[in-house]
Amino acid sequence: MRMKKLLYLAIGAVVAYGIYIAISLMFLPSVAELKNRRTTMTIQVKDWHGEYHPFTVGPKNRYWTPSGSIPPEMKWAVILAEDANFYKHEGIDVKAIKNAIKYDLEKKSFARGASTITQQVAKNLFLSREKTISRKIKEIVLAKRMEEELTKGRIIELYLNVVELGPMVYGIGHGARYYFGKPASALTPRECAFLAAMLPGPRVAYNPYKNLGKVLKRSDMILRLLRGKGVLSDDEYRQALAQTPNIAGLQRKVDASIEKEETTFENRTGATVPLEPQSTTAPDEQAPEEVPAASSQPAANGEPAAGDGGEQQSPPPAR
Question: What molecular function does GO assign, one term (predicted)?
Fold first, then answer.
């Protein structure tokens, strides 16, 4: 009798949870406004001390980099490294999910995720970072809606402008300035691969100040992927491999910035609490542009063509 009662309670809990999820899905935000490339929204991002700060997504952020100013090598570096089926799936990658479940069961942990770039955009723009079933379901639903409303080029533009690359460094526009002292449009293939290599863990695992060798090794792998996909020629690949990103002396700049923030905070409160410098925002006069193709030639492998006006993008043919 007791077991029967427990079974009823369990079923009731599952039904109640299902109703809760169904209701919460009804109140998900619309993604339609994101079609307008001049749209600006404010989200919350976390610094490396766990504090949240407002972050502007859109042209009013002075580091915002419109799609037309993002090097094709940068786009392909993150696609090939993070979501190889980006131009084939419709928001979720079923095969990747199956592989992740198999891996996690073998390791008896939740060690591997299976989020697509679209899912990551949905999470970064609209959801919390909590690891719950309900959040994951919301993420999947929002990702599917984004794929219906937005072009692939718009999705990758949003993704590259909100990814974390350092202490309060979000987006490749800020990342390019922070690490290399240049705009994102001037990044070399090696620098593109370097930034893409940091994405799985810029705070610890792929922090270039702590694990530079690991970041360089992963960026070498990404360069090989770019060559294999035909984004780089043999000569461009060899030149990129021969380069070493110059980030010498940057740690001193970071330490000085943090020390300045700590001094300012101590003067105000009398307490010493380390704070990360926050990014500032200012109007960006540059209007968003369309995504340039990685090559003006037609794709040789039958994949989608390379535009962003509702078309999907494919790599240039191997040279």
Answer: peptidoglycan glycosyltransferase activity
Determine contact, residues 278/44, Cβ cutoff 8 Å.
no
Contact assessment for residue 292 and residue 72, using Cβ atoms and an 8 Å cutoff? yes
Catalogue all structural domains in the chain, each as residue range(s) with its CATH number.
46-269 (1.10.3810.10)
Radius of gyration from C-alpha coordinates of the chain: 21
- Percent of the residues in the chain that have a pLDDT greater than 90, as a whole number: 50
Query: How does pLDDT run across 49-90, given as a tens digit for each residue?
Result: 889 999 999 999 999 999 999 999 999 999 999 999 999 999
The residue among 224, 240, 226, 65 whose CA lies nearest residue 156 is: 65
- The residue assigned the tokens 């490749």 is 172
Residue with tokens 């690949």: 237
Give dist(CA 288, CA 109) in Å, integer.
42
Cβ neighbors of 308 (< 8 A, separation 6 or more) are 67, 151, 152, 153, 154, 157, 290, 291
